[in-house]
Amino acid sequence: MAKKRNTKIQTRSEFLHQVSVSSPRIMYFDALKIGARLLKLLSILGLFVALAYGCKLLWNHFVRNNAEFHLTQLELPEGCQISGIRVLEACEIEMNSSIFSIDTDALEQKLTAMPEVKSAEVFVRLPGTLKVDLIERVPVAWIECKSLGVIGRDAVRGLLVDQEKTLFSCDPAIFKRYEAFPIIKLPSLERKEIGPGMQLIHKEGLRAYSLLKTSNDLVNNGLVNLPPFESVQVRSENSLEVRCYDNSSIIFGLYEHERQLQDFVTILERAQETDRRLMNANLIPERNIPVQMVPINES
Asked: Is the pTM of this model over 0.85?
């Protein structure tokens, strides 16, 4: 049985209706409607832009450029060794600049890039205060390694080591403050063992550091009275040579530093009692310590 065909024949009226719907006139009016909507949208956007620009002008006039909101005070931690001028120079900002132009994150990065700064936090406090919390590195000694061109007590080529055994460069602006610190003199090293931001890892160098740290602790706690050390040189794998500013030369071992420092004090007291000056001593032996003294008036 043949299937019935279901073909729809378009009538003349339907054809004319389609032609009338897609006629150029209607398309023209549709385009006008779209254009009007776009113009309305652009007008609204323009109004928002104008309002934003107006708000910016008002902000700059009444707030940003208002002298009341200019930087007038810099707060640093009590006892901070870094001057306010140096902080401003490192941050590249000036007093009386707008407090709202300060980027605290950028300032913290600039401050922590300073060799003598361990960490920094910066806060803005209205109307015109910049609060800077710094944790400074506390140096213990200079590091010297001539084979690597590292020279103690040199503002350009020198390195300092802090209480965490971290090496850092000495900025020329703070050189005078640390110039008299003792020098730890290391033997020839590979460059990978020493550099700014690195930890002191040299075995004998760490023992020299330990000697200085123990000496400083005993002196600062009032337990002993010692002449200031000029340098500590690594002599071998089992000894260190301390040079004092009075030109005396003292040999220490790598360990038992507290005992040896106490012996050093005893020898100094004996020299003072007999009007003599200590020239040399080897503190490694616990008994029969080799000592050389000369009369005080002897050159």
From this structure: no
